[in-house]
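Pleckstrin homology domain-containing family F member 2: structure tokens wanted.
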Amino acid sequence: MVDRLANSEANTRRISIVENCFGAAGQPLTIPGRVLIGEGVLTKLCRKKPKARQFFLFNDILVYGNIVIQKKKYNKQHIIPLENVTIDSIKDEGDLRNGWLIKTPTKSFAVYAATATEKSEWMNHINKCVTDLLSKSGKTPSNEHAAVWVPDSEATVCMRCQKAKFTPVNRRHHCRKCGFVVCGPCSEKRFLLPSQSSKPVRICDFCYDLLSTGDMATCQPTRSDSYSQSSKSPLNDVSDDDDDDDSSD
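Answer:
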């Protein structure tokens, strides 16, 4: 079906509409063989709070952006090559239901669909696209992925020292290796993570010690590990925007 749609006028028109919705600030999306599989609004678990984002699934990339005017205008376009993507289902937790992780070497995050059926359809289509891409290229699935950041709202104190309380002065930081919310003194070191940045990035002391000794796998927690150590009480929106790769996200 994908091959049949690749050169169809309907597919070309649909992709053109998506390009126009992102405007001049967005990257061109029309290339030979690319097919728009589907689109929809998903809730992305961002650093500060869950936010609605418009997602577009193509046969080779996943595109998402901020919704300015529904079905008419989007901004802050993000493009993720699907051959680097792995996905994992997330158990329902409170108001956050029908979710899964989208993991890549550069960035990983959680998204949530409106219904269980919608979640199943998204995951099935993504997995199918990834499988087809890897089959054609002969590549193996990526086994490296960036940590999923624990949201600011889930940590009232540093998740490493368990002592420092976050205030407007003592701001939150995120370790780029494990995704924990940590205080400044617990994350003063930098380490080069080539898949995430060409420059050394902030990591916590725990991960720095492990990375320095070559024990890289140990400081990559699962999402449940991260959350089990975090407090789930609501708190004021105090965060370090300058320490975020996308302060609005």
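The mean pLDDT is 86. The first helix runs from residue 2 to 5.

Cheers.
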